[in-house]
Specification:
Strand content: 5-15%
Order of helices and strands: EEHH
Strand order of the largest sheet: 1-2
Number of strands: 2
Largest sheet: 2 strands, antiparallel
Number of domains: 1
Structural class: alpha+beta
Radius of gyration: 23 Å
Length: 97
Amino acid sequence: MKSIKVSILGKQYPLKVEDHEEETMVRICKYVDERFQTYRNQLVKQPEATVMVLAALSIAEELFEARQTNSDNSKNEEVLMQRVNASLERLIEDIRN
């Protein structure tokens, strides 16, 4: 495990990560910080906690949309593979006859 420090909304947070996860975690924290900063700039009069919750909900929405897209793509691939398999089975049957 490796200890790193990341900054989100100007506050330092210590994290423990595996060596191979460090770069990814730094990128994730940078992304979260950028989103929080964007929301803070748009919602100047709101408390920081509100800003963070709204930004977190926005990030979660992106995640859910990406998962749905991946799920839809997987379903489309599965249907396509079933069609290909059915076609191959028909071809094999035609060759046998």
